[in-house]
Amino acid sequence: MLGGGRLHYAEGLEKIYCYDITGNHWSEVPTQPDPNFGFPRARCSYGCAKWGQDVYISGGRHYNEEEEHRSLSDIWHFRIDTFQWRKLRMRLPEPLYFHSAIVSPSGHMFIFGGVHKDRSRTANLYKIRLPHTMPKLVELCWEKVCVMARASKTMSPSHLRDMGVPWNLSDRLHLSS
Predict the structure, then answer these.
(1) For 45, which of 65, 97, 150, 163 could close a Cys bridge (C-beta 3.0–4.6 Å)?
(2) CATH 2.120.10.80 occupies which residues in the chain?
(3) pLDDT 10s per residue in the chain (177 long)?
């Protein structure tokens, strides 16, 4: 379990709680700080996405008795096998919390919805290429096909299949009539 919290309280990320299925117990495990930036700020209501042994957290809400509550826009990488934190150079376009996050097969982190720092809700969708992911060549090619399909506005799934695009890719297209 990474962080979390409740109203006016956010759990720190210097340690995480791990559940041992075999032993049926929880243990507290210290994490390793980023050599340059230390640990992520304590936060709750952040986006979290897992990709293999990598976990990415984005934004969230920081609560601290000494500071005013803050919405965050930073993005951190956590490695499950080493418990190592790394702060990424990229940031969300704006501070955000209560949003959803997922990592796609193409190595992008998609962030949807959430709450702005002024407490207004958003339905924005952001796409970020993660630096620690290596997409398969087929996913990179599919991105280019999607750009072509949008530009021509005439490519349908059946047209793509006629061109030799595999059905499992062409069926991803949902073009409006």
Answers:
(1) 97
(2) 5-134
(3) 777 777 777 888 999 998 989 999 999 999 999 999 999 999 989 999 998 899 999 999 888 777 677 889 999 999 999 999 999 999 999 999 999 999 987 788 999 999 988 889 999 999 888 886 677 788 778 878 777 777 766 677 777 777 788 877 777 765 443
Is 2.60.15.10 the CATH number for 5-134?
A: no
Residue 150 burial by CB count (10 A; 0-12/13-18/19+): exposed, middle or buried?
A: exposed
Rg of the chain in Å (alpha carbons): 20
Identity at 173, one-letter amino acid code: L
